[in-house]
Amino acid sequence: MIMALSTDHSTRSVADILGAIAASTEAVAQQKPGAREKVLALSHQLVSALETPSETIQRMGWAEPARFAATQLAVDLKIFEKLEEAHDAPVSLSDLTKSTGADAALLARTMKHLSAMDVVGETGADEYISTPISTALTVPKFRDGISYLFNVAGPSFHSIPAYLKATGYGNPGNIADGPFQFAHKTQNPFFIWLAEHPGYGEQFNNYMSGYRQGKRSWCDEGFYPVMDRIGQGLNPETPLLVDVGGGLGHDLLELRTNHPELSGRLILQDQPDVIKQVGNAAEGIELAVHDFFTPQPVKGAKAYYLHSVLHDWDDASCLQILHNIVPAMTPGYSKLLINENVVPDFGAAWPITSMDWLMMALGAVKERTERQWRGLLQQAGLEVKGIWTYEQGTESLIEAEVAV
285-289 and 266-270: which strand pairing? Predict the structure, then answer.
């Protein structure tokens, strides 16, 4: 079962795009599923239709890179915190200079570009206020996303053309020899390198929780039918759901919040440093240290859940992960739930295509099509029972059972 909105990437006139946006305003106001994403996609099309080639190159070549660099500088100098502390009152350049110790001329150039790119607000000459995005960037799960992407992912992206030229333009497929290793001068796969750089590891974990905020959860009403698929015929003696490699546990919290009527143990599994970062688990959630490259210790759960795990690994590694879970599953009872992108054959949205490039940059891996997902799971002895997609450009929920 697949439910998704298509994305029209055909060339359209400015008038057509404006008309489509106007026709969608009521749906956005009513918060209908996919309406906001549709207008965002149309807005991107509108910019492309209005820009001249020169303007597009300027935006790609220096406006956006300068915004990213200036935002990282503002994070380093805690400028967004200074604006937030003012409680919507203007903050002068002079005050920012005093509080940061940075050169006034440098700050002036930085703040002007951040204002021009709508990261901060400008109330007068050398006077600035916070905006929703600058306020968000005072919160670790968003702020750390900037630093992680700028310092870790950014160099990997920039190295892709040179890496591909040096390797004869083959599709990257070696997790220990890809654009990331080329950029960061290492022979270690991404996650091993991350473990050796705990500061970036903490930023990565925080960013993962921020990345998912505001997105539809698999257990939201209208997405995956939780009660029908995993809420029936439960065995009270066995766990309800095991979140394998579940990070800081936000998915389990959402499941418990959205479906308090579900009974059964909820278990969060991850590496020791991640579990340590979680600290005290929320009520009803058990913490467990587990390496998913080793056999799954929890047997017979109703569901085993993998969110944004398998796209980090090549097929051989994914099969190893899956082969460690399948023996723990009870045929005809247990389900494997995979919360990942499913790349459509036509009209893929930019959040998915750009994530595919991010996977190439960091791990020499990929986002998978439906055919690739089905083939991978079949090799692991699993049968896909359904695929649910809430709206375009978002992750899907793949349900599989042990093949019989």
Answer: parallel
Q: Check 37, 367, 395, 401 and give the catalytic one.
A: 367
Q: Residue 380: pLDDT above 70?
A: yes
Selecting among 250, 290, 307, 311, the annotated active-site residue is 311
Would strands 303-307 and 241-244 be described as parallel, antiparallel, or unpaired? parallel
SS3 call for 331: coil
pLDDT digit string (tens) for 179-205? 999 999 999 999 999 999 999 999 998
- Reading phi first (left if > 0) and then psi (alpha if -120 to 50, else beta), residue 303 is in beta
The span from the CA of 397 to the CA of 388, in Å, is 5
74 close to 91: Cβ distance less than 8 angstroms = no
Q: Tokens 């026709």 identify what position?
A: 23
Q: Is 127 a catalytic residue?
A: no
Residue 367 annotated among the catalytic residues of the structure: yes
Identified catalytic residue from 340, 391, 399, 401: 340
3-state secondary structure of 113: helix
Triad 31, 249, 228: Cα angle to 5°? 60
Contact present, 334 and 300 (Cβ < 8 Å): yes
Give the count of beta carbons closer than 10 Å to the beta carbon of residue 131: 17
27-34: long-range contacts (C-beta < 8 A, 24 or more apart)? Answer: 33/216, 33/222, 33/390, 33/391, 34/5, 34/390, 34/391, 34/392
Q: Is 78 helix (H, G, I), strand (E, B) or coil?
A: coil
If you write DSSP's letter for every residue of 142-194 in order, what string do you get?
Answer: HHHHHHHIIIIIHHHHHHHHHHHHHTTSPPP--TTSSHHHHHHT--S-HHHHH
pTM score, two decimals? 0.87
With contact defined as beta carbons under 8 Å apart, do 337 and 306 qualify? Answer: yes
pLDDT tens profile 312-344: 999 999 999 999 999 999 999 999 999 999 999
Percent share of the chain, pLDDT over 70: 97
Q: What is the phi-psi region of residue 169: left when phi exceeds 0, alpha when psi lies from -120 to 50, beta otherwise?
A: left
- DSSP SS3 for 325: helix
